[in-house]
Amino acid sequence: MLNTPASGAGQRVSAALRFLVLALLLGCGGLSAASAQTAQTAQTGSPVRSRTSAVNTPVPRASGTAQGSTNTTVGNGNTGLPVQVPAVPLVDLRVRNPQNGKEVAFSVQLLLLLTVLSLAPSILLLLTSFLRVSIVLDFIKRALSLQQVPPSSVLMGISLFLTVFIMWPTFSEVYENSIKPLEAGTVSVEEAYKAAEKPFRIFMYKQLQGNPQSIRLFMSMRGLPKPNSLADVPTYVLVPAFVLNELTIAFKIGILLYIPFIIIDMVVASTLMSMGMIMLPPVMISMPFKLILFVLVDGWNLLTQELVLSFK
């Protein structure tokens, strides 16, 4: 029979298949032997060695050990080999019943501290000037019809540093009257909390002096009598009243910022309508004029100055 290309290709394929089956059989045999040796090692506690190496190989002994090192033992003999120190130490956390009331109070204080730390960003937003500054900066970005410039992260950074600048006297007073004595151990935690609360209450109350409607609203909803001084206003009433007042002032500033830019939008839109350019977006044409006006009046410096001066 003549050997055709098809028959030669078939022979090569069959030879390749036989070689593949043989390799698979050899691999399965090797895996079986390895698994059996592993199982025997797990049962005996030591790897399997040849009879001659297990019997004739002596155990080395050290004449002395370095100071601070320990030796491993096998049965009753000492190998003289130092024990390896683990790279990662064991951290053991135990939960047990408290022995007295002090331990219970300490656990509650620790839980409250972790809660306050998790709410620290919200406290920064609600008890400082950050709320008003961030809202006003967002308003000016929208009034200029800017979508991506400056980025929101940049505006938040500017708001943060302006907040630190505005609140620096308050923060300094808190550090001097609360944190520093607490570190020295001259005051208790309760006294430090009251000393830290006082400057923030004074700051919030100063912003509400011109418009006490928010305090009156929350006092009436709570059913509390009319306060005669700041000391009569609870903190849980003063904080929401301050937040509501900050939102109101920020929106008022935003309206004043929008007025000149709305006039520019109306003028540009009327001009485009009169010229018959209905399909051309007015925002595309008015945005350069807004930027020119904002730069000519030194908008950033003027806005920052008025924002800082708006806080009493």
How are the SSEs ordered, and which strands pair?
Layout: H1 5-44, H2 51-56, E1 71-74, E2 77-82, H3 101-118, H4 120-127, H5 130-143, H6 152-184, H7 189-208, H8 213-222, H9 235-274, H10 282-296, H11 299-309
Antiparallel strand pairs: 1-2
Helix pairs in contact: 5-6, 5-9, 6-7, 7-9, 8-9, 9-10
Structure, explained:
- This protein has helices at 5-44, 51-56, 101-118, 120-127, 130-143, 152-184, 189-208, 213-222, 235-274, 282-296, 299-309; strands spanning 71-74, 77-82.
- The chain has a domain at 130-143 and 150-309.
- It has a two-stranded antiparallel ribbon with strand order 1-2.
- The termini are far apart.
- With 312 residues, it is mostly helical.
- The longest helix has 40 residues, at 5-44.
- Helix 6 (152-184) packs across helix 7 (189-208), helix 7 (189-208) packs parallel to helix 9 (235-274) and helix 9 (235-274) crosses helix 10 (282-296).
- 69% of the residues lie in helices and 3% in strands.
- The protein is flat.
- It is built from eleven helices and two strands.
- A hairpin with a 2-residue loop joins strand 1 (71-74) and strand 2 (77-82).
Q: State the order of secondary-structure elements, H for helix, E for strand.
A: HHEEHHHHHHHHH
Contiguous helical run count: 11
Helix fraction bin: 55-70%
Strand percentage: under 5%
**Strand element count:** 2
Major sheet size, sense and barrel closure: 2 strands, antiparallel
State the secondary-structure class: mainly alpha
> If you compute it from the alpha carbons, what radius of gyration comes out, rounded to the nearest whole angstrom?
39 Å
Q: How far is the N terminus from the C terminus?
A: 109 Å
Mean pLDDT: 74
**Which word captures the global form?**
flat
Poorly predicted runs of 5 or more residues: 1-6, 45-77
Give the spatial strand order of the biggest sheet.
Answer: 1-2
